[in-house]
Amino acid sequence: MATYLISMILGVLIILLAFRAGRSLVLEKKAERKLKIFSARLANLEESAKRKIAIELHDRVGQKLSALNLNLNIIKNRFTHDDSGEAETFFADSFRLIEESTEEIRDIMSELRPSNLDDHGLAAAIRCYSDKIAMRTGLKIDIIDDEPGLRLTENVETPLFRIAQEALTNVVKHAKAHSVTVRIEHRQDCTRMTINDDGIGFTRETSGDEASGLGIIAMRERITAIGGRMELNSAPGEGTSISVEV
Amino acid sequence: MSRYETKNIRILLADDHRIVREGLKSLLAAGGITVVGEAANGREAVRMVREHGPDVALVDIAMPEMNGIEATLQIVTACPECRVIILSMHATSEYIHQALNAGATGYLLKESAGQEVVLAIKTVARGKRYLARRISGTMADELLSKGMRLKKNGPLKSLSPREREIVQLVV
Ligand SMILES: Nc1ncnc2c1ncn2[C@@H]1O[C@H](COP(=O)(O)OP(=O)(O)OP(=O)(O)O)[C@@H](O)[C@H]1O
Ligand SMILES: [Mg+2]
């Protein structure tokens, strides 16, 4: 009888415990979902803030620099007499300064939000970003788009571009690679983008502390937020391949 | 830049920034070029081209209501004799191709438009293409990398003298 009672109490306890564990699992899932939504919302916010700054730079500073260049030309045309030729040098310097400042604005704009992404799509934006990296680092970057000119919706193009950007940055920072290929493949029901480098590769062990970087985590977040998935393949000496599909 | 060559060229200016239009107007006036109309967006530009029939339209690529590319398409359809020069802050090939495909014969970068605009206008008014100095190099590289052959009567014929010069230099 006593054993019967004990086993009954134990049973109830176990059921209670299991119930609590189940409940906390549900809560955890819920919290995780909320966190995902929150981080997606944060990414959208960041994106629109960046776009806004890029547009303001273009519209305010860029246009004023253009006007400044025009005015300077007007002054130069009216300026006729300078024995030393010193004025010529100042004019030339000023024109160069305007061009360089505009170039810097272009660089900042393309880092914030490349206008090419909105105007010409994913491959064009990646190409533009790659050209800059190639010029700076000598890395050989190939971009292959199996349907050039095909546009995806903005909520797909933006995360794919950000993923490519992070993947390419990682190649520059970590891979010691000679070349990278970015491949964009359009299928009937999905789009796949693969970034493949011929660098040193890595494993969980060699990449060190999980907390050290957020890049790969953020890539995964971005793609899952739009219902896609990511696959990462890498091994020491074998290069790295990141593939996203949506 | 003799007055004689440019005094008969009639220009339409289209840019949504007044300071840019003002600057261009004074600069062109000094070069003896007449501005027959000013538009602040693409739609207005198309309407004014129809109204004034200018020889050359200087069109900003980014304008509200109707952008410069769409405006170019409509301008060259409505008025095939009118040459269009795109003014832009973008230096990458996608934009340049887009402008040329829409029917523009000139492409100027805004930060150096002051030095080049009169020459660009004269060049397109003669029926030739004009690309901003800074980009004509990249464009020539790209044409070459696409495997362009330098045959007699080949695609080189469609290049402006400046582009041809550069293509030849690169080769
Ligand atoms: N293409 C690559 N080749 C070799 N190692 C890589 C490559 N991409 C990532 N790694 C390794 O994985 C680690 C994690 O990458 P992740 O992008 O998450 O972080 P991070 O680049 O170090 O920092 P963050 O991206 O937050 O600035 C890197 O520190 C690096 O060791
Ligand atoms: Mg990283």
Please sum up the structure shown:
Chain A has helices spanning 2-78, 86-112, 115-120, 122-137, 154-175, 215-225, and strands at residues 140-145, 179-186, 191-197, 229-234, 240-245. By secondary structure, chain A is an alpha+beta fold. Chain B has helices at 3-6, 18-30, 42-52, 68-78, 93-102, 113-125, 133-145, 161-170; strands spanning 10-14, 34-39, 56-60, 83-88, 106-109, 130-131.
Q: Distance between the terminal alpha carbons of chain A, to the nearest Å?
A: 62 Å
Radius of gyration of chain A, taken over Cα atoms and rounded to an integer in Å: 27 Å
Order of secondary-structure elements of chain B: HEHEHEHEHEHEHH
Largest sheet of chain A: 5 strands, mixed
From the coordinates shown, what is the CATH architecture of chain B? 3-Layer(aba) Sandwich
Multimeric organization: heterodimer
Please give the order of strands in the largest beta sheet of chain A.
Answer: 1-2-3-5-4
Unreliable parts of chain A: none
Mean of pLDDT of chain A: 89
Determine the strand fraction of chain A and express it as a percent band. Answer: 5-15%
What general outline of chain B do the C-alpha atoms trace? globular
Helix and strand run of chain A: HHHHEHEEHEE
Ligand roster: adenosine-5'-triphosphate, magnesium ion
